[in-house]
Amino acid sequence: MTTLGLQGDELLAQLRELLYLPSSPATSSGDGRWRRRGSKKRCRNDNENNNGDEEPHPRRCGSGKTSNRKTKQQKSSKYLVTSVPDFDGYQWRKYGQKQIEGAMYARSYYRCTRSAEQGCPAKRTVQRNDDDGNPAKYTVVYMGEHTCTANDSLEAPVILETTAVVVPASATSSSANKQQQRRPQHDDDTAASTPLTAAINNSSMAGSCCSSTTTTAATGIIESPATSDITWSSSDHVADYSGLFPVYDSWAPASLQEMEDFTGPIRSPVHVPTDGWTIDQFLLHAAI
DNA sequence: GATATTTGACCTAC
DNA sequence: GTAGGTCAAATATC
């Protein structure tokens, strides 16, 4: 029977989907969750919360000076222009967003998720470029070096060789369409319950320190450039690898509109620091 | 309850 | 004075 082959294909498709889908449960810290958050105002000086007697919050409600403020343009070590700002192999936590003067899109600020535990100073900003090409491009600026050593630490932002995911058109016609159809804008739901998910969760991929859980509502494009195709640039150069890879639109958003603002969380597929294992190797292995 | 994100306010360099 | 960077309460979700 061909069922085995079909099953294999299906499993492969599933795995691919998982690997290149955002917020896969295989991402570390147990979540990669997508949430929509509200916001509230904080106390404005002493009026709201401090009925005059509490000492004002050192930062928010008073005069306190919390110190570690950096210089304006931090020593930006490297930056690149990409349509897939999330593929850097690290795990980032967003801590701010700011509308930048003269820019159409807000800039998002991220720091390494290990910054709290290990004091990793690595930060990055992601800003969508004004020239709205297709796909949209983002300027990602990295500041500081990773000093975190969790699990399989990587010396520098590393992206696994996952280019092979760009499947030939003939192969994508069915599976990709399927994916497009059922891929919601954001979810970890479908991914969570497949056998392959379990396989991944049990594999070294799960809980890897550097699987990136940043998420992007930016383009709806998921593509995985190979490591070798990315040039980390000093401030003099910009690496633009966005054109090197065909778009693998595996989870097209329901509405491009929601991508426009880049205000939502940024999501990215799983990155796995697997000592020489490419995802294709993993796929191959999994399929056997 | 834990954790990540949102977002306005705050702080500081320019 | 302004713009950019950061903080942290509020909040959503698991």
Automatic annotation (TrEMBL):
Coiled coil: none
All residue ranges annotated as the WRKY domain in the record: 88-151
Gene3D superfamilies: WRKY domain (2.20.25.80)
Alphabetically ordered keywords of this record: DNA-binding, Nucleus, Transcription, Transcription regulation
InterPro entries per UniProt: WRKY_dom, WRKY_dom_sf, WRKY_plant
Keyword Transcription in annotation: yes
PANTHER family cross-referenced by the UniProt entry: WRKY TRANSCRIPTION FACTOR 21-RELATED (PTHR31282)
UniProt GO MF annotations: DNA binding
Top-rank taxon, per record: Eukaryota
Keyword Nucleus assigned: yes
Full protein name: WRKY domain-containing protein
Residue segments, region Disordered: 22-80, 171-192
Listed Pfam families: WRKY (PF03106)
A GO cellular component entry from the record: nucleus
Ranges annotated as biased composition (Basic residues): 34-43, 59-75
Subcellular location: Nucleus
Bilayer-spanning residue ranges: none
PROSITE patterns: WRKY
Organism encoding this protein: Urochloa decumbens
